[in-house]
Amino acid sequence: MSEAGLTMGGHVPGFTEESPFAIPSKKLVMWLFIISDAVTFGALLFAYGYVKNASPDWPEPFRFSPSIINVMLMTFILVTSSLTMLVATRAAKEAERVRAIQWIFITVAGGILFALLHIREWMGLIREGVRLFQNPWGSPMFGATFFAITGLHLAHVIGGVIALTVIALGYKRGRYNSDDVEIWSLYWHFVDLVWMFVVPMVYLLNVRR
Amino acid sequence: MATTSTATTSSLKTDLIVYSCILALSGLQVVLAYRHVQGMLLMLQMLGVALVQAGFGIMYFMHLRDERRNLLVALIPATVFVLLMMNMIWSDSFRLLHMQAPMK
Asked: Which domains does chain A carry?
């Protein structure tokens, strides 16, 4: 087919196809990214399980107070930020620009608070002597696996905070539209979902009784 | 290329119910962690609860239930397959555990 024929798709029956998923390409790309990232986190959690299972002296360092209470608070903040992002997306779809931006920034505030609590949790463990390949309790691999998994998740949260800020400012200026808000809300919900697996595998299976 | 986004069928009420369920399930995980069940059974219980939470999140928060079914079919089974294939590492993990010298 000639180039002219390609540009005049309407004249070639069956040439222009509808998207099989009926979603914007940006949204499909975000879904594909989420799936690949889910597999990345899955691989890390499996590796964590592998090392933990193979180590008879795996440490159980997390006390109810402060660690588990801190983690419960972090979970509450992250799940609540998902809800606020839903409200922001709905406002954007209803063309309520100001309300959408306000809710996106509330979500960003939740993300920042989560990151600060996460860093506090890290600092507490570091003060107790946990390093990448050393800790006072048992298997030296604990620190490496703990910091790798929670660090990757924290990097996603910080990335999400930056991305949502950029989207909110761009949406305010008219550079981005409600579809962009919806697409980045998918990313934020995904970060929330990953935390649902990190908490039980990394924290709750290692509580000090 | 389609340019319209998903027409979501959920309301704020539905979102609040799902949000409450996810938080309640997180609380259930903490309760499970402090019961006298340990090891593989506890891990399976935790994973089961986390999968339900993830299902709620994907279907309601990420609105996958509102998308065309072929998007769901294209994304989910392939991901589940890859994650299931990773389970082949466990036998080697147990081998390592039993190969170790006795603890002093």
From this structure: 24-206 (1.20.120.80)
